[in-house]
Amino acid sequence: MGDHASMDIHPPAERIRALLATMSLAEKLGQLTLVNGGEGRVPEELRRDIRDGRVGAVLNEVDPDTVRELQRIAREESRLGLPLLVGRDVIHGFRTIFPIPLGQAASWNPELVEECARHSAAEAAAVGVNWTFAPMVDIGRDPRWGRVAETLGEDPLLAGTLGAAMVRGFQGADLAAPERLAACAKHFAGYGASESGRDYNSCSIPEIELRATHFPPFQQALQAGVATLMASFSDLNGVPASANEFLLRQVLRREWGFEGFVVSDWESVGQLVVHGLVADGRGAARAAAGAGLDMEMASTTLREHGAALLEAGELSLERLDEMVAAVLGVKLRLGLLDGRDAVPAAVASDPAALDCAYRAAVQGTVLLKNDNGTLPLHRGAVRRLAVIGPLADEPAEQLGTWVFDGDPARSVTPLQALRQWESESFTVHYARGLETSRERGGAGMAEAVRAARRADVALLFLGEEAILSGEAHCRADIRLPGAQEELVRQVAATGTPTVLVLLAGRPLALQEVVDHPGAILCAWHPGSLAGPALRDLLFGLESPSGRLPATFPRLGGQIPIYYSQKNTGRPADPATFLSLDQIPRGATQHSVGNTSHHLDAGYTPLFPFGHGLSYTSFEYSGLRLDTARLARDGALGITLELRNTGSRAGAEVVQLYVRDLVGSVTRPVRELKAFRREVLAPGECRTVRFVLPARELAFVDRSLNWVLEPGAFRLWVGGSSVGGLEAEFELA
Q1: Hey, which residues are catalytic here?
Q2: What is the overall mean pLDDT for the chain?
C-alpha cells in the first residue's frame, strides 16, 4: 500500500501513463468520483471507498484533523496511494470574507481582486483544502438571477480580466506551493442567461452570441492557467451542459486545447435523467463521459456504470484513460503526487487579509448619487446621528452569499464602527425600523422616524439579507423587499438629510425611492470589514471610487438591460419619446414615437454600467489618436489628459469604449476595450495612454469566425459607459 513513486523525476506525461498502466478499472473510475465529505468525521463507507480506490476527491471537509485522516487513508491504505483532491466553495474568502464577487468587480481593480483570492487560498489551504470552485465567470445581465452576486458583472472584458486575476490569486506561479489552490472556472457555459432569471432554467443562446459574449471570460481564465472547469447545471440550446459535446469536446478541447479536467456541478450528471435527455443512470454516465465530462460531483453514475459501458463498447478505454489522465495531471500540478502535505503547517492566516478586506470593501462601494454634497459627512458638524435599518448591525448578513467558513468574530458592522467614534464625535441613536429586510409590517418604523427627526443626519442601511441572493435565490421583483421603500419615504419626509446605504447581492430597481435620499452608496455585501469601510467612506476618510460592473434598471420590467445593446433599426429618440404620463388624451398610435422603448420606463437605465461618483471631480481633455487610419496588424495609441479638479485625492476608473459603425452583423452601441484605475492628488494632471491592438476590434461573423472588417469606428474615453471624449478612426 502507498507504493507510488514519490518525487519521480520523469516527465509528467510519462508519469501519468505509468500510473494508468498500474490502475485497475475500479481505481480509474474512482479517480473520476467526487463525493461529499463527512463534515468533521470519516464515515465508515467513505473510509472503505477511499481505501478501495473508489474515490478520487472529496468536498465540504474543512476540519484539519479529518482532512489529515482522509489523506492518510488515501496515501497509506489504498493500493496506489493516490492523494485526494479536497474541494470547497471558497468563493470570496474563507475565514476572512471579502466583498461578494460582484462587489469585488465594482473595484475595477485586477490587482486587488488577485490579492483577495491569494488570501482566500492561503486560509483555505491551511485546513487542507486544495481545490476551489471559483472563479465564476458567467456573464450576469439579469439581476433577478440569484447567482448574479457571484458573477463579475455584465461585460466579457471586465469579467474575463478579473476572473483571470482570481485564477492567478488562487493558483500563483507554482500550483504546488502549500498556500495555493487549484481554481475552477465555472459554469461552462451560458448559465447566466437562464430564462426569467431562474436558476437551473433553460438557456437559449445563439452560437454567435455564445462565442462573442459568454466564451471570452473562460478563454481568459484558460490563458491564466486555470486547472479545472465546471460544467453548467442548465441545458444550452436543448442539451444540458454536462452532456454537451459541442461545449466540452469541440470548443474546450479541440478549439482551445484545454488540458485540465471538467467537473460536473452537484449531481448534474444524475440530473440528465430529470432533464429528460436520457432514461436512466447508465444513460447519464454514457452521455456525460462521451461528451467530454471528466469528473462527477455528488452523484456516482460514472462509478456505478463505467464497467458495463466499457464492456458494451459504449465507453472506450481510450476515453476513460483520457478522463483519468486529466485528473491525475491536476493532482501532479498541485504537488499531491510528490508529497504535498495534507494540512501544511507552514500556511497560516495572514493578518494582512483584514487590511485587504477593508480595501476591497472601500474600493468596491459605488456612490450612485450625491445631491448637493450630502456626502461626505463632517465629524465636527454632526452631533446626533440616526442609524436606521435591519442591516446596520448584522455581522452575518454583510458577508453575503456562499459563506460557509467565515469567522463572525472578524465582522465589524456599520453600527459597531460608528459607535467606535461615538464618544469623541457624535451620539448614535440606533433604530432597526424593520426586523428583517423582508418585513412587511412596520412596528419599528415609528421609532426610526422619531430617531431621524431628532438627528442631524439619518443613515439608512437597507437592501437584502444574504439569503436573498445566491444559488436558487432568485427574485422576480428586485425592488427593495418588504416595507423598506416606505421606510425610506418616511425617514426622508422628516427633512433630516438622509443617506441610503445599500447592502445587497444584486443591482436593485430603485425607481420608487431614488429621489428621496440625498445620497446613495451601493456597498453590495461588502464582507468582514463592512463597518470600518463604510464609516470611513461616509465621513470622507476614504473617497468612493467603485464603478458599476452591472447596470441598475429603473424597473424590473426593463430586464435584460445592459450597456452593450444593439442599436436596432428604430433606436429610442429623446426628441420624440413620450413617457406614459406625457401622452395626451386622444393621442394617435404614432404620436409617441415608434422607437424601441417602454412607455412606463423609457429606454435608459437608472444607473449605467461603469457609473460611480467621487468626492472629487475629474476633467478629461486633449484626446489624441496616434493615427486616424489603423493597419490590420497595428495598434492604435490613444492619449488624453486627466485632471483632478477637486480639493481632495481620488481614484478615477478611466474607461475606453469602441463602436464598430458598420459590420456584416449588427454591432453593439459600445464595447468596453480597456480600463485603468488612476489615483490623482488634488489638482494633479496626468497623461493617460491606452494602446488598442487592431485584433481587439475583431468580432464573430455569420460563419462563426472571428474576423476583422475594415471600416469606420468611433471611440469614447470617460468615466462611465455614457458620454466621454469622442473620436473616430478607420481600420484599413
Answers
A1: 265
A2: 96
